[in-house]
Structures are given as structure tokens and as C-alpha cells.
Design brief:
By secondary structure, this protein is of the alpha+beta class. It has 20 helices and 32 strands. Strands 1, 2, 8, 9, 10, 11, 13, 14, 15, 16 and 19 form an 11-stranded antiparallel sheet that branches. Strand 6 and strand 7 form a beta hairpin. Helix 4 packs across helix 20 and helix 5 runs antiparallel to helix 6. It is globular.
Length: 776
């Protein structure tokens, strides 16, 4: 019998003392809602991500182990490059007095599964009565090490409560995993070393990446170590050991540790399978590994990003949840890799990188850890060959960045076909990879934003200027002459419910911005670094393109506010049909609209999927008046379904700018609960990376009021009424500022050895090196 209760499935208040607002706890086991917790409780360290399936297997589970940058393409014209699901090393099958431990059998007397954000450890605490009436206390613990990126550690304790028990374990490495049925690995060598270490080798079928997985077990009874008899089994892509039954007396505790590791030929320090084995053989036990893991999280994460919210417990938990996942999803160890739209928490979007990174996630690192931000942007520079290839394939010049990116040289990897059309029953064509082109300007914007915050001239000279120039070359070749002006037709803007539109406002404005920045930096380098300009000119034909930029940028059509101050989202949006969206906005189901309409029908209605004009008003905010922002909010928000997870965060920030604290906070609450909330079907395919980054932006850029305008730092806090204080760090031009905001005052500590100038609440101030400025 399952433990059934009326209270919410997730609890946020279990933590007390030093663990207050650090714990997220699943309070009941539901075999129909495994996906949500598998994703939001996922463990990761940037090198790999582990979907948090249980040790024992269930029919509705989706097990996943993803290693950064190990893409593979299954053979076939309809397949695209994706991050392969590596071997599962979590599985452990327990037989207790002849009965298999399964929570769908017997009776659950107590159940809690807890993600401890501070320790980055997942635990399950269970009191289970078997079908035969035997009772057991079983505790599972695991983590993916931030100290040793290759290691997964598990610990299980079993305590019989009614009678003595014989415990039998079957455990190993299962390489039979697939990506929704697609097998990405060739058969490799299976082996057992010294009767202790199991090994499974595999190679990806197309990209020829070698994977090697190891697992070993250790046993203790009442803290006395022992080694049970065992038998090794090998099957196709699978190696398992059966450990013979061991008797555990009533109220005694057996402890089982399983330490696993994965290494690939993509690792920068890869040498050979033998070297990987040598490294793994030196890995310590659970407690030793956990001590180092905790220290890494404390020094690299929680000390680096000490964000404090006072007055609202859930909000403090939510920002820690965001930082936890931002850390786990980001391959900070390797600039050849980027952030997937689902991180490493599921197969959603195939591990591909989108504009999510540059617009929603990168600002966190740009202002909080510039070293990682630089690496993420270096990925885009390294992937210029793929962007150039896409431009050539579409008869354009310069760098046309893919909507979805994987390998550096791949170019576009967006699938061509999606879900079935509700009306025709045929697959829906995905046009984003063909005509959602604003990502090229988004990347240029992120480069510029990084440079303004950091002053990193070395990055600009090696990578940044080239990215801005190469993207501007694309835009000048993309613009279409229409009479005495230039236009951009046949695109998809951020609002993906509008396809093949002309002059999408966001796309046109961002393209114009990109061209203007290229002109500015071309002229700057003429004066300051003509040798670098000459080198880049030879590669990108900048002398000719500079003239093209000037002429076309000046004549590029930019949709202007109409008599009601509304900026047309595109040429035809304002003339489309208006329907009552109230039922769909109220629905808990994302995309509920498509139960009644297909995309062609929605394309002819004034319905917006996510922030479009609104995100333009956020990114280029100093180009629009407060009156224009308010008018566009009033017009577009009622027509926006927020069917994309990234939408509410943007709207929350704009609501703060418009002075509506209550609405800003309401939008923030909804954004922070997309993954963390009680909807047990919201995250089955994985967490929402853009939303996770958006949560941080709402806290720091929205409520904290941090902005960079025209290369200058501004701070204009406006805390929600529920918050009594907010503290957070930011970097500005190499200086680390610690900002503490209350409802009545602002304190800024400059921890660097150089003075910092910023504008606080409309007044320019200078904060001297190693001093603290406080408002009255």
C-alpha cells in the first residue's frame, strides 16, 4: 500500500537551524509522478548530470546520465545530434528475506526524499513494511562530486526492525540505456578487476567517443567491514554482480557503498582506459569523497554567490535552488561545451544550447563569476565555423548562428519535425532552425554585455570583436532592400506562435543594435589597434562591410510606437483576430491552446507565446520611454500565454521597472515555481534552464535593480513588500561589490583595491577601494 496523503508532494520547510531554507523534500512516493522529482532533484557538477531515478526500478521512470560535450548522431536523415544517455550506474536491486524491495509493493509507513542544496546531496529515508509483514528502515544517500568531476557516490543503510533478515544485492553498470529508444553506443569491453572493480567500455556510434565506466562496492555490518561472496554476470552492454545473502540481525545496520566513475576520450586530460582505471582505483570511500565534495560546494559556490533574502523563506530557497542548478548544468571545466536548455536533467531539447544561455543564464555568470562567463562565450567563438557554414548554406555571409547548437562545427541541429498537428494529424514542421535568426544578435549582445561588466580587453581582442563583426556581416547580408529602406522578412521572433512574419520588432532592433556596435568598434580599432583591425578585416572583408553597415543600418526599418504608443510586434500582428485567452491563461497545462487550435490558426490570432516586444524593452531599455513601456505592457501582457518558462521572469523585471511591486512579485512567484512548485508534471523532460537563470535576474536585476546602461553601472532597488532585506554580490570591472538592500537603506561594500563609480537611485556616487557606502 502506498503512503497516500492530502498534503503537497513537495515540502520546503523541513530545514531548521543551519539547514533552514536549504532543503526540498518529497513527502510521498507517487509512481505516476516520478519524472518531476527525477529532474528537479537531479545532481550535477558541470561535467555530468544525473537524473535522480531511484536505485530500484519502476515502470514510469526515466533514467539518465549525461556527460557534457559527448554528442552523437544516430544514423538516419530524420535524426539530429544529441547528448547520449550514458550507462546507468545507480541501479541496485535488494532482496530482503526473499522479497524484492519495491515501494509499489507492501506498505510505506514513512517516506521522505530530500535534496539538500547546501551539501548537494540527495537522500531517501524510508520505513517499509514488506508484503510478508517485515519492517525495515532503509536510507539511501548519493551525490555527484564537485571535487572529483568523474565520481558518483552512493550509500545505503538497511536496518531490519521486526526480525533478522538476509540481504541479497544485485548491482552493476547498465549500458543498455537509450535516448527514447535510440541506442548511441557500440558494444565495448566488459571486465572485472581484482574481484572488485567492474568496468564497461562503450563508443558512440557516429562521433566515436570512448566512454569507460567503473563501479565498486563496499560492505559493513555495524561499522565492521566485510566482503560477501559474489558472482559476476555479463550481458550485452551490461555487467552486474550478485552479492550472496548476508544475515543482518534485528536492529543491526548493514551499510553498502557503491562508488562509480565515468571518463571519456573528450576529457582534456584523457590518456587511456588504463589511466582512467588507475585514477578510479585511487578514489576514496563515501565519507572521504563527501567531505571534499562539501568543501568544493562551500568554496566554489555558496561562498562565491552568497545571496540572502530575508522575510520570505520560500524565496530564499528558490534562489538557492537556482544557483544549485546553474552550477550543476554549466560545464565550467571546458570552453568547448555550453549549457543545454534542460541542463543535464533530461533528454529535452537533446542537450542543445539555445539563446537561453546568452540572454537568460549568462548574466548570472557575467556579474557573479566572469571566468565562467568568458568560457561560455569562447564556446561561441570556437563554433564560428559552424555558424559560417550555416550562413553559406542559406546564401548569406558572415556568421549565422544556429538556433540549436551542439558540436562546435555542426552548425544547425534543430529537429525539422515536431508534435502532431491537432487538426491535420500530421507532424508539425519546426521552423526555428530555419528562420528564428535573432540568436545571432543575441550572442553579440551577450559579448558586449560581458565586456561592459568586466572590462576584459584580452577577451575582446582574442574573441569578442570578431564575434561582433562576424555577426554584423551576417546581418548586412540578410537585410532586404524594400524601396528606400531595408527590412527583415520571413522570420520567427521570440514569440514562436508567429511564424514567417515580416519585420519582427525584436529581430529588427537587435540586428540594428548589432550593426551599430560593429560600426563603433570598427572605428575604435582604427584608432586604438589598427593591426588587430587589419587582421580581422582580411578575414571578414571588413573594409567593404563597414560601408555596408553604415548604409544599411541607417535605413533599417524599426517599427515605431503607434498613436497608442504600442510597438507593432511585426507587420501584421495588430490586425490579427483577438480571442478570449482567459481559459488558457488560467490553465495549469502549458500549451493548452493547442488542444483547440493548430499553429496555423494561432498564427492568425493576437496570441503571444512569451515575451517578445517586452524582452526588447528590457534588453534595450534606455531606447524607450516609461510611457512606451507601460503602453506595451498593457497591450501585450493580456495576449501573452507565458507558455515558455522564460517569459514570466522578463515580465517580473519589467513590472518592477514600471513600479508595480505586487505584480512583479506575483510574476516572480510563478516563475520560481515552474520547476520547484507543486505541479508534478511540469519538469518531466528536465528542468528549465532559462527560467532558472531568469529567477536570478528577477532577484538581482529586478528587485535588486542592477543595470548596465551605455557602459555604466546603475542600481535602483525596489524590494517586494514581503522582503525585509536582500544581499548579493556582483563584479564590476574587476571589483567585487557586496550589496545589502533593506526597505529603507542600501549598503554597498567595495572589496577591491580600486574605486568604483555607479549611479544609485539616480545619483552618481564613488565608492572608494575597500570601503562601504551606506545611504541614510
Amino acid at each position: 500500500m502506498l503512503l497516500k496523503n492530502d498534503y503537497p508532494a513537495l515540502n520546503y520547510d523541513k530545514g531548521t537551524g543551519e539547514e533552514k531554507n536549504w532543503l526540498v523534500t518529497e513527502t510521498r512516493f507517487d509512481p505516476e509522478a516520478l519524472g518531476k522529482v527525477e529532474a528537479v532533484f537531479s545532481l550535477g557538477n558541470g561535467y555530468m548530470g544525473l537524473r535522480s531515478a531511484t536505485e530500484e526500478r519502476y515502470s514510469n521512470e526515466v533514467r539518465g546520465n549525461f556527460i557534457a560535450g559527448t554528442f552523437n548522431k544516430f544514423l538516419g536523415d530524420k535524426e539530429v545530434t544529441e547528448l547520449p544517455n550514458a550507462a546507468d550506474m545507480l541501479e541496485m536491486t535488494f532482496t530482503l528475506n526473499g522479497e524484492t524491495f519495491q515501494l509499489t509493493q507492501g506498505e510505506i509507513l514513512f517516506y521522505e526524499r530530500t535534496l539538500n542544496l547546501k551539501k548537494a546531496e540527495l537522500s531517501r529515508d524510508i520505513h517499509w513494511r514488506s508484503p510478508a509483514g517485515e519492517e525495515y528502515k532503509i536510507v539511501f544517500s548519493r551525490f555527484v562530486s564537485l571535487d572529483n568531476l568523474h565520481v558518483i557516490a552512493q550509500k545505503v543503510t538497511i536496518t531490519p526492525l521486526t526480525n533478522d533478515v538476509t540481504v541479497k544485492l544485485n548491482s552493476g553498470i547498465n549500458g543498455q540505456m537509450t535516448n527514447t529508444g535510440t541506442q548511441h553506443f557500440q558494444e565495448g569491453v566488459l571486465r572485472l578487476y581484482d574481484q572488485k572493480i567492474m568496468k564497461l567500455e562503450a563508443r558512440t556510434t557516429e562521433s566515436a567517443i570512448d566512454f569507460v565506466h567503473f563501479s565498486r562496492h563496499a560492505f559493513a555490518l555495524e561499522n565492521e567491514e566485510f566482503t560477501p561472496k559474489n558472482t559476476i554476470f555479463m550481458d550485452r552492454r551490461k555487467i552486474f554482480t550478485t552479492f550472496e545473502p548476508e544475515t543482518v540481525a534485528k536492529n543491526q545496520t548493514m551499510t553498502i557503498e557503491k562508488i562509480s566513475g565515468v571518463y571519456t576520450s573528450r576529457d582534456k586530460d584523457w590518456n587511456s582506459v588504463e589511466t582512467a582505471l588507475e585514477l578510479f582505483s585511487k578514489v576514496g570511500n563515501y565519507d572521504t569523497l563527501f567531505t571534499a565534495h562539501q568543501h568544493a560546494w562551500q568554496s566554489k559556490v555558496w561562498k562565491q554567490y552568497p545571496i540572502q533574502i530575508e522575510g520570505a523563506n520560500f524565496d530564499q530557497l528558490a534562489i538557492r535552488f537556482a544557483v544549485y542548478h546553474l552550477t550543476g548544468m554549466t560545464p565550467a571545466h571546458d570552453n568547448r561545451m555550453n549549457i543545454g536548455a534542460k541542463g543535464f536533467s533530461g533528454e529535452g531539447y537533446k542537450g542543445h544550447a539555445f539563446w537561453d544561455t546568452e540572454i537568460f543564464v549568462l548574466p548570472f555568470f557575467t556579474t557573479s563569476n566572469p571566468t565562467i562567463a568568458r568560457q561560455l562565450l569562447e564556446y561561441r567563438w570556437l563554433s564560428l565555423p559552424g555558424a559560417v557554414r550555416k550562413a553559406v548554406e542559406n546564401n548569406y555571409e558572415g556568421a549565422m548562428f544556429p538556433w540549436e547548437s551542439a558540436w562546435l562545427e555542426d552548425g544547425e541541429v534543430t529537429p525539422v519535425w515536431g508534435a502532431a498537428d491537432i487538426i491535420t494529424g500530421e507532424p508539425t514542421k519546426i521552423w526555428s532552425g530555419f528562420i528564428e535568426q535573432h540568436i545571432t544578435a543575441d550572442i553579440a549582445f551577450a559579448v558586449w554585455q560581458y565586456y561592459q561588466f568586466t572590462g576584459d580587453k584580452d577577451f575582446m581582442e582574442k574573441h569578442g570583436y570578431e564575434l561582433i563583426f562576424a555577426t554584423a556581416v551576417f546581418w548586412q547580408s540578410r537585410l532586404e532592400k524594400k524601396g528606400d529602406q531595408y527590412e527583415i522578412t520571413g522570420v520567427v521572433g521570440p514569440d514562436e506562435y508567429k511564424e514567417h512574419v515580416d519585420n519582427n520588432a525584436f529581430t529588427n532592433y537587435m540586428a540594428h543594435w548589432n550593426l551599430e556596435k560593429a560600426i563603433h568598434y570598427y572605428e575604435l580599432l582604427q584608432q586604438e589597434n589598427p593591426a588587430l583591425l587589419a587582421s580581422l578585416s582580411a578575414k571578414w572583408d571588413l573594409t567593404r562591410n563597414y560601408t555596408e553597415w553604415q548604409e544599411k543600418s541607417a535605413k533599417l526599418y524599426l517599427p515605431q510606437p503607434n498613436a497608442e504608443l504600442v510597438i507593432p510586434q511585426d507587420d501584421t500582428y495588430l490586425s490579427k483576430k483577438i480571442i478570449d485567452l482567459a481559459p488558457y491563461k488560467a490553465s495549469a497545462q502549458v500549451g493548452a491552446l493547442f488542444l483547440d487550435y493548430n499553429l496555423d490558426q494561432v498564427n492568425d490570432m493576437q496570441i503571444t507565446k512569451q515575451a517578445d516586444v517586452m524582452i526588447l524593452l528590457y534588453l534595450l531599455e534606455n531606447e524607450f520611454s516609461p510611457e512606451v513601456k507601460q503602453a506595451n505592457w498593457d497591450y501585450y501582457e493580456p495576449k501573452t500565454l507565458h507558455d515558455s518558462s522564460l517569459s514570466r521572469a522578463t515580465h517580473s523585471i519589467l513590472a518592477s521597472d514600471l513600479g508595480d511591486k505586487e505584480l512583479a512579485y506575483s510574476m516572480f512567484e510563478k516563475a520560481s515555481r515552474i520547476d520547484l512548485g507543486q505541479n508534478m508534471k511540469s519538469s518531466d523532460a528536465g528542468i528549465h534552464s532559462a527560467s532558472i537563470g531568469g529567477i536570478w535576474q528577477v532577484v538581482v536585476n529586478g528587485f535588486g535593480g542592477v543595470r548596465m546602461l551605455d557602459g555604466k553601472l546603475f542600481l535602483h532597488p525596489h524590494l517586494p513588500e514581503k522582503w525585509t532585506a536582500l544581499s548579493f554580490p556582483i563584479y564590476w570591472k574587476g571589483s567585487r561589490l557586496l550589496i545589502h538592500v533593506t526597505q529603507t537603506a542600501t549598503e554597498i561594500s567595495n572589496t577591491s583595491n580600486q574605486d568604483v563609480v555607479l549611479t544609485l537611485n539616480g545619483k552618481e556616487i564613488s565608492i572608494l577601494a575597500n570601503t562601504t557606502f551606506t545611504t541614510n
